[in-house]
Amino acid sequence: MKRYWLLFVCLVVMLCAACSEDSSGDKKSEYRVVYSGEIKTLNYLKTSETNEFAVAANLVDGLIEYDKYGVVQPGLAKDWSSNNDATVWTFKLRDDAKWVTHDGKEYADVVAQDFVDGLHYVLDAKNESSTAWIATVVKNGEAFYNGDMTDFTKVGIKAVDKHTVEYTLETPTPYFLSMLNYVCFFPVNGKFIEEKGDSFGTTRENFLYNGSFILDKFEPQNERVLVKNDKYWDKDNVLIDRIRYKYNKEAATVAPELFLRGEIDSASIPTSIIDEWFKDEKKKSQVRQTQNNFYTYFFALNFNPQFDAEYEPENWKIAVNNKDFRKSLFHALDRVSAMLTLEPYNPKDLLSNTITPKNFVNVEGVDYTQLAPLTDLSNNDTFNKEMALQYKEKAKTTLEGKVTFPVKVLMPYNSGMPDWANRSQVVEQQIEKLLGTDYVDVIVEAGPSTGFLSEVRKPGKFALLEANWGPDYADPSTYTDPFTADGTYNKPELAEGYTEANGKSKYQNLVDEAKATIDTAKRYELFAKAEAFLIEEAFVIPYSVGGSGYVASKLNPFEAQYSPFGVTAEKFKGQRILEKPMSNEEFKEALEKWEQERADALAKAAQ
């Protein structure tokens, strides 16, 4: 998603359903949430942080949404069409969608110009939108963003009439619908955002709502409350009346006990106590697995270190630019041992040997990860003691006199996530034991629970870092975004010795060639080639897919809107609060049923 650099920048633990009575005597369902990672803005057109657009997804609607099987459905657009080569897309808007203020009063109709104004804001470089790079799919979007063009009317979006918006794209983009599920394509009322200026999204009052909820209370590091939007066009499908987020810096630790006391109705259950839960009959009936998702987790090696001098960034920079050194770390990481800190029963089921997860996209019935040359990597574990030690000896020989051993390897983690802290300790001990403390000194450092992405990841204050990325749309290119020249990742394009004749890195050129290819089969082959290069050169160490772990929850995950990309998974619309939490046996049964129903629904939608 994007975005955005998707790390665990927040910890949200879902809590208690309660009932309250309004003035009419009707029962109101309330769902409580505790969190440890605070949001800094409500400005969905600017942010790329998961915990921030997760809130916005419930306050603002886009053109489309998804049902519980992942089939695209009308949102603010009631229907749409594209031309033959998928370069022009036309959307007809519903006429009953309203913008409302923080107190629920109607402000204006949602109209086509709102989508034009939203994209204009995103593509105006002075607004520093973190998701502008996604929006450059529209014709002349990149030129406008870079200042090569100043007339926005030449950018590929226009309001044909009050309820018709048309996008013209740079190249054929058959997956464009899936891109609209991301915040950079959300609408904004132009008059309102112009009036508010830089204060837009700073308070609940400086915000307009057209989604299923309104922000009734917003007190950072205390509480925020979402209430059902009575003016919402689809309010009958909003089944929770109030969502209460309560700040608690120890959210991950206190949630299980609060759940057991009956004060809450959902909590993540950390690995450290999961055995205890499964051995207790009462607790066992209330805990279940979580669904895997399409977030990809990997260890990034930083080629642009910006950390403190005490951790010897220049020494690290020399070492990481040596392929033998990178490969020694690549093959030394025992991913099964690391994953045991999160999934103690079936860790191998969550491991991923590629950046793009399996079952994300396929071509002619062949999964993307099984395309050559990616298939050899996809089907083999990277952990190899012998190879790790061989590369260690090669690195020591080639780096002799150039670096100081042991090389300090700064590896920070989000302090709001106990499992991440435990995993960091395991990785440190395991790598140092295999490679030797005469070779590397892995330094585990606690980072902030709030703002980890902006304070640690983006500034490059790490050498080695467990990180994640979520897809923004249904195409392999979405998983290249963190690593290209425009990305905000570990900057592999800065690795020495990989610049080609046109001044770009080899990886960038491979990605550019793939992006310029229209034929799907050939396009996917080229992306597979680029991804295999990224992994084989050990610029990154693939690790796992997301969604692992255990939860006690009164939400049914199979009632929620479903999509591998965008913000759909963050929405509460369509969900209801169960009387009791789902057990693991009930979860597995429901999952099997849902998977079959989803396959049927997707097949029907493809007809």
From TrEMBL:
Solute-binding protein family domain mapped to chain residues? 72-489
On whether Transferase is a keyword of this UniProt record, the answer is no
Q: Which organism is it from?
A: Lysinibacillus agricola
Localization recorded for this chain is: Cell membrane
Known Pfam families for this protein? SBP_bac_5 (PF00496)
Q: Which family does it belong to?
A: Belongs to the bacterial solute-binding protein 5 family.
Q: Which domain of life is it from?
A: Bacteria
- Chief place of localization: membrane
Q: Where is the signal peptide?
A: 1-20
Q: What is this protein called?
A: Peptide ABC transporter substrate-binding protein
Membrane topology type? Lipid-anchor
What keywords sit in the KW lines?
A: Signal, Transport
